[in-house]
TrEMBL record:
InterPro entries: MTAP (IPR010044), Nucleoside_phosphorylase_d (IPR000845), Nucleoside_phosphorylase_sf (IPR035994), Purine_phosphorylase-2_CS (IPR018099)
Protein name: Probable S-methyl-5'-thioinosine phosphorylase
One term of GO molecular function: glycosyltransferase activity
Annotated site location: Important for substrate specificity: 166, 220
Catalytic activity line of the entry: S-methyl-5'-thioinosine + phosphate = 5-(methylsulfanyl)-alpha-D-ribose 1-phosphate + hypoxanthine
EC code(s) of this entry: 2.4.2.44
Occurrences of domain Nucleoside phosphorylase (ranges): 3-242
Database matches in PANTHER family: S-METHYL-5'-THIOADENOSINE PHOSPHORYLASE
Pathway: Purine metabolism; purine nucleoside salvage
Organism: Alcanivorax quisquiliarum
Subunit structure: Homotrimer.
UniProtKB keywords: Glycosyltransferase, Purine salvage, Transferase
Coiled coil: none
Further remark: Although this enzyme belongs to the family of MTA phosphorylases based on sequence homology, it has been shown that conserved amino acid substitutions in the substrate binding pocket convert the substrate specificity of this enzyme from 6-aminopurines to 6-oxopurines.
């Protein structure tokens, strides 16, 4: 099994990854955000892709999710762990906590969200009742526990369009809908993985209280501080995960 990691905001490069090659892959859907990094983590072969480019230049709606997922598949990925920075909606989704969501709701729009839209093949509707792979999430849970992480097993990730953050009313609506955390990149990434038959799970680091959930303005400085404190542990969890293979 070759695990692929997609690094998001705060994880453009993985410090604990031994880089062997940077694969320039072009796909029929265009170029991925960055070269696919081929390397070793805990002495196991892994792949890594910077979702927003390296350096981080792409906004969430500018990411070519189809090219990213197709490039990982072509590079030999057999499963994908996506790392995300998210805002916390539920009380237990405090800043610094890691969430492994088990559901999502998609509020994004206008993104290329399927590989099956060229009209040459059969009409395809994939099952997406459970967007995250249960076996991969179980392995992730063991790695999170082994690392002593402060983490939450399950929850609903709401995907907004961005790049602006949400209004307090939008977050209240998302809370009524059942969202626990909010980010801008979970879709169409998750469904494209499903269409390619790639097991997919997320590791979401809560980096701020979502809009209206604290008395203060959400600042990039606050977000960067939480990322600086927490992304090292996320990388350690990924190493523990591959070591368990
Ligand atoms: C205020 S930071 C917003 C930015 O961070 C998240 O990125 P990612 O999911 O790639 O970690 C969020 O989705 C936004 O793109
Ligand atoms: O509050 C947020 N909203 C949407 N995406 C995010 N990514 C980090 N924090 C947030």
């Amino acid at each position: 099994m070759t695990l692929a990691f997609i690094g998001g905001t705060g994880l453009t490069r993985m410090d604990n990854l031994q880089v062997q090659d940077r694969l320039q892959i072009s796909t029929q859907w265009g170029a991925p955000s960055a070269p696919v990094v081929q390397g070793e983590l805990a002495s196991r072969p892994v792949l890594f892709l910077a979702r927003h480019g390296d350096p981080h230049v792409l906004l969430p709606h500018q990411v070519n999710y189809r090219a990213n997922m197709a490039a990982l598949k072509e590079a030999g990925a057999s499963a994908v762990i996506a790392v995300n920075a998210v805002g916390g909606i539920s009380a237990h989704a405090r800043s610094g906590v890691i969430v492994s969501p088990d559901q999502l709701i998609d509020y994004s729009w206008g993104r290329d969200m399927t590989f099956f839209d060229d009209r040459s093949g059969p009409v395809t509707h994939v099952d997406f009742s459970w967007p995250f792979d249960a076996a991969l999430r179980a392995r992730l849970a063991a790695a999170l526990d082994a690392c002593g992480a402060d983490w939450v097993n399950g929850g609903c990730y709401g995907v907004t369009q961005g790049p602006r953050l949400e209004t307090a009313a939008e977050i209240q609506r998302m809370e009524r809908d059942g969202c626990d955390i909010v980010g801008m990149t979970g879709m169409p990434e998750a469904v494209l993985a499903r269409e390619l038959g790639l097991p997919y799970a997320m590791l979401s680091l809560v980096v701020n209280p979502a809009a209206g959930k604290s008395d203060t303005e959400i600042t990039m400085a606050e977000i960067e501080a939480v990322i600086a404190a927490g992304m090292g542990q996320v990388c350690a969890v990924l190493a523990a995960l591959v070591a368990s293979d």
